[in-house]
């Protein structure tokens, strides 16, 4: 199973090179990454409208292509960053000062946020929980896959910013951690 940080690094490396497609196999898991091409197929869909049955099958692939581009396009910015004033702007949290020792764990993908591995299980972490780089803090479900999100830092959870079952976006803050 590939870790989110490994996938993110592969995407970053692809962005920095002329490689268009990459396939990696490790420990029985296979990963295929392909750079998004220009949106040339989209205009080709418009002229084909003589029958209603022909329009519906052509509409579905366009949506899927858009979703893939949304997930892979913003791979360049580092999604987990120390707290900064720019992150507080528009957050609605009402905080006027930013604590430099706070670290924000953000969602590495679009999906559904879950605090626990199962509906009847205890949450992975709570406010006050101690975490390290390998601590699983939540799950983000994307396309029926449960992606375990690790803290990638060492410290104490001071704030949980997403609700259980909430749809989260790429880069959306999920937790704030006071660094050790």
From TrEMBL:
<dbReference type="InterPro" id="IPR000089">
    <property type="entry name" value="Biotin_lipoyl"/>
</dbReference>
<dbReference type="GO" id="GO:0009317">
    <property type="term" value="C:acetyl-CoA carboxylase complex"/>
</dbReference>
<protein>
    <recommendedName>
        <fullName>Biotin carboxyl carrier protein of acetyl-CoA carboxylase</fullName>
    </recommendedName>
</protein>
<feature type="region of interest" description="Disordered">
    <location>
        <begin position="62"/>
        <end position="98"/>
    </location>
</feature>
<dbReference type="InterPro" id="IPR001249">
    <property type="entry name" value="AcCoA_biotinCC"/>
</dbReference>
<feature type="domain" description="Lipoyl-binding">
    <location>
        <begin position="102"/>
        <end position="178"/>
    </location>
</feature>
<dbReference type="GO" id="GO:0006633">
    <property type="term" value="P:fatty acid biosynthetic process"/>
</dbReference>
<dbReference type="InterPro" id="IPR050709">
    <property type="entry name" value="Biotin_Carboxyl_Carrier/Decarb"/>
</dbReference>
<keyword id="KW-0275">Fatty acid biosynthesis</keyword>
<keyword id="KW-0443">Lipid metabolism</keyword>
<dbReference type="GO" id="GO:0003989">
    <property type="term" value="F:acetyl-CoA carboxylase activity"/>
</dbReference>
<keyword id="KW-0092">Biotin</keyword>
<dbReference type="InterPro" id="IPR011053">
    <property type="entry name" value="Single_hybrid_motif"/>
</dbReference>
<comment type="function">
    <text>This protein is a component of the acetyl coenzyme A carboxylase complex; first, biotin carboxylase catalyzes the carboxylation of the carrier protein and then the transcarboxylase transfers the carboxyl group to form malonyl-CoA.</text>
</comment>
<dbReference type="Pfam" id="PF00364">
    <property type="entry name" value="Biotin_lipoyl"/>
</dbReference>
<keyword id="KW-0276">Fatty acid metabolism</keyword>
<comment type="pathway">
    <text>Lipid metabolism; fatty acid biosynthesis.</text>
</comment>
<keyword id="KW-0444">Lipid biosynthesis</keyword>
<keyword id="KW-0436">Ligase</keyword>
């Amino acid at each position: 199973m590939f870790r989110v940080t490994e996938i993110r690094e592969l995407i970053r490396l692809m962005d920095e090179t002329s490689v268009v497609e990459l396939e990696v196999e490790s420990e029985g898991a296979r990963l295929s990454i392909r750079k998004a091409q220009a949106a040339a197929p989209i205009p080709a869909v418009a002229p084909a409208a003589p029958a209603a049955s022909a329009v519906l099958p052509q509409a579905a692939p366009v949506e899927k292509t858009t979703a893939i581009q949304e997930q892979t396009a913003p791979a360049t910015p580092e999604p987990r960053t120390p707290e900064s004033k720019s992150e507080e702007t528009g957050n609605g949290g009402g905080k006027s000062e930013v604590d430099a020792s706070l670290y924000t764990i953000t969602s590495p993908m679009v999906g559904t946020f879950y605090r626990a591995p199962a509906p009847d299980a205890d949450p992975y972490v709570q406010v006050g929980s101690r975490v390290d780089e390998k601590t699983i803090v939540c799950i983000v479900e994307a396309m029926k896959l449960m992606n375990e999100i690790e803290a990638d830092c060492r410290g104490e959870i001071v704030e949980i910013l997403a609700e259980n079952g909430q749809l989260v976006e790429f880069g959306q803050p999920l937790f704030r951690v006071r660094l050790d």
